[in-house]
Structure formats: C-alpha cells, structure tokens
Amino acid sequence: QVQLVESGGGLVPAGGSLRLSCAASGNIFSILVMGWYRQAPGKQRELVAAIGSGGNTNYADPVKDRFTISRDNAKNTVYLQMNSLKPEDTAAYYCNAVARDAKAGALNYWGQGTQVTVSS
User: Fold this and answer.
1) How many angstroms separate the CA atoms of 23 and 78, rounded?
2) In the sheet where 77-82 sits, what is the strand order?
C-alpha cells in the first residue's frame, strides 16, 4: 500500500506560479513512477507530468516549458512547479503513483487532490 498526500494548491492570477507537493508513505520502495494528473469540470482526467525512478520525465504538450516535475527521494516527495499559469490550467490536481504489486503486477494509487484555480 502507498499513501499520497498533496498540498500547495490555491488561487493565483494568470501568469503566476504555484508549487504542488506530494508526500508518499507506506511501501515507497515499490513505487515505479510518480506523476501529476488534472481534471477540470466536465473533462476527463489527464496526465500533466510524470517522473520515473531513474529521474526520466514526461510532460503533456500544454504544460511543456511551463511546468517542472521533480522528486526528493530523501523526503519521498514529488513536486510540480507550475509557472506562467493560465486560466485553462484550472483543475483539481491529483498525485499518482504506480507501484509494483506481487499479484497484480502494478497498481495505481491516488492522492485526494488539490484545487488549482487561475484567475484571468
């Protein structure tokens, strides 16, 4: 089992910045990939950024060059630095971890979500 707790959301004007944090606990040594997803009202949840255990990263096209995902292994925490925020970035942001599981192969774990609202 892996538990994820997000923090750092809030209200920010367009062009501003926010940093989201996701602290992992439990069976952290089973984690393969951690990432951030977002879901706006009426839309499907979508990948924002992901980071593998080796530090390789992947970003969705709309956030490339504006968002940066990073991880602090000593703190078991993943961060999402969001710069040059746009109103269309408004969404609930969810932390995700993919972890090895002896029976299922791999399991997805989710945080509770944190709201990011960008005003125009």
Assistant:
1) 7
2) 2-7, 18-26, 77-82, 67-72
pLDDT tens track, the chain, 120 positions: 999 999 999 999 999 999 999 999 999 999 999 999 999 999 999 999 999 988 999 999 999 999 999 999 899 999 999 999 999 999 999 999 999 988 889 999 999 999 999 999
DSSP state letters, 26-80: ESGGGEEEEEEEEE-TTS--EEEEEEETTS-EEE-GGGTTTEEEEEETTTTEEEE
Whether the CA torsion 108, 63, 11, 52 is positive or negative: it is positive
Q: Tell me the residue type at 118.
A: V
